[in-house]
Amino acid sequence: MRTLSLGRLCPYTGTIGHLILGLSSKGNAVAVSDITDGLTRSIEGLVSAVTDPFSDPVIRLGVTGLSRAGKTVFITGLVANLLDRGRMPQLKAQAGGRIDSAYLQPQPDDTLPRFDYEAHLAALTGDNPRWPASTRAVSELRLSFRTRPDGWLSGLRGPQTLHVDIIDYPGEWLLDLTLLDKTYAQWSDATLDRLTHRPQGAAFLAMARAEDGALPLDEPRAASLAHAFTAYLTAAREAGWSDCTPGRFLLPGELAGSPVLTFAPLPMPAHTPRGSLWREMDRRFEAYKSKVVQPFFRDHFARIDRQVVLVDALGAIHAGPRALEDLRRTMADILSAFRPGRNGWLSGILLGKRVEKILFAATKADHLHHSQHPRLTAVMEAMVRDARDRAAFAGAEVAAMSLAGLRATVEQTITRDGTPLDVVQGRLLSTGKLAAMYPGELPQDPARLMSPAREGATAWLDAEYALMGFAPARISLKPGEGPPHIRLDRAAEFLIGDRL
Ligand SMILES: Nc1nc2c(ncn2[C@@H]2O[C@H](COP(=O)(O)OP(=O)(O)OP(=O)(O)O)[C@@H](O)[C@H]2O)c(=O)[nH]1
Ligand SMILES: [Mg+2]
Q1: What's the CA gap between 462 and 336, in Å, rounded?
Q2: Is 470 in the pocket of ligand 1 (CB under 6 A)?
Q3: Distances (CA, A) of 59 to 114, 317, 334, 427
Q4: Residues 467-498: b if buried by 16+ CB within 10 A, e if exposed
């Protein structure tokens, strides 16, 4: 067995001297928000008349991940860097000079909220840069490309248009797929069992156990049970647990307070007479499945061609072995949605349509020096291995990588106790001060993390992993350059490169 190379390198935090973030502003440095706001908006109107949104090829690109995984930052960074491609050398169509233009267009789905690209970009790249607000609902953005074929094809074919419809949706909604197979009794059983292992569940568990589901429905009682259950879900999510289903309880939107969200798991009573609390909870659970879960899969999920699954693996490692194991299990549940055939109802909806490519990406990689990125990717691969093998079997092309939608740090090597240490530096979210962070060394073999996590360890044996929240850096960009990122060009090449 390989020895663990974690040593006793404690997380290092220190304030360092002057820090230069972003680029030196030689020549005409222009803030990215200025470029994009001005240019893309005007082009949006202009070009939509030139291309035919109905006959040109379309890729529907799903972007998902659990809450706070980094979806909004990823999409904003990706779109900004596809509009201004100066930092996208690994995108082959860009390197080959085949992209004439990229522009935003009105999206095809009139009833979906538009992904608020301009507001998110302004937050990230404005004078007072900050992370965008939590979104937590489905939204869409259409990005279109005018490309020229290269080689001998260029003489035969004129310029082409490709539309990429990016759909941002919460990973929690995919988790709800597992509810479709379950009856209310089975779901209640499994959920109450899960609660016994989570301290945040104690209060609701006591309440549910004291409840007699055979008694006639009393609406205020049902509402207070649902309320207590939602409070537990919220606390569990805040404590870092990944599986906090049903997904809409935490993200209710316009369904808040409706009967479809006013249910909770209960122990099954010996009798369940008509009009009893149990019967009504059962009915509402079924309504949640048919009126909330199924429409999402039918209207959105079933139409996705390519998918990015974003994972805050570093956050889970930092939170400890239990959080990592919970994340691994939750990912397996999420990814079961991409396994056609596992769910009869879903197979019926998909009618043989399959997601062509799936990218599993560990986000926020700017918290780690690049020398550790392959290790983070290895953790990511280990976490989704089962699901990945199955997806590959089902015909989807699958890749894993580590990336950052917006790079908030710069790398530096400092000397500590005579030993060189690869750190990242950025401006702390909490104090606004510049700080260097050494987050701990990830093991070369991801099993060193995954195995203790599976075996129920409560703390990492021989290592500490620190994470600090960094604020986005103030940047000024040269014309044609998007905001700094890590590997968005590779991600784009994998996801859409073959069609550009
Ligand atoms: N350093 C760094 N932090 C990031 C990056 N991406 C996301 N974050 C952090 O993670 C938080 C969540 O990112 P979002 O993009 O809002 O995540 P989300 O998945 O859209 O979250 P919800 O909308 O709440 O589901 C941000 O507020 C940042 O603190 C990144 O590339 N680098
Ligand atoms: Mg979001």
Answers
A1: 33
A2: yes
A3: 17, 34, 22, 37
A4: bbebbbbebbbbeebbbbbbbbbbbbbbbbbe
Distance 372 CA to ligand 2 centre (A): 26
User: How many residues are there in the chain?
Assistant: 500
User: Which residue, 238, 266, 255, 237, is CA-closest to 295?
Assistant: 255
Q: How far apart are CA 495 and CA 308, in angstroms?
A: 8
Q: Which has the closest alpha carbon to 455: 290, 269, 288, 328?
A: 328
The pTM (predicted TM-score) of the whole model is 0.84
For residue 246, cis peptide bond before it (omega within 30 degrees of 0): yes
The ligand minimizing its distance to the Cα of 171 is: 1
For 439, the enclosing helix (H) or strand (E) is none
To test ligand 1's pocket by mutation, which of 248, 364, 411 has the most ligand atoms within 8 angstroms of CB? Answer: 364
Which among 66, 67, 72 is the best mutation to test ligand 1's pocket, defined by most ligand atoms within 8 Å of the CB? Answer: 72
- Taking only the tens place, the pLDDT of each residue in 430-479 is 898 999 998 888 999 999 999 999 998 988 887 778 788 899 999 888 89
Which-ligand-closest: CA of 310?
1
Q: How many CA atoms lie within 13 A of 441 on its CB side?
A: 14
Ligand 1: nearest atom to the Cα of 409: 1
153-178 pLDDT, tens digit each: 666 777 899 999 999 999 888 889 88
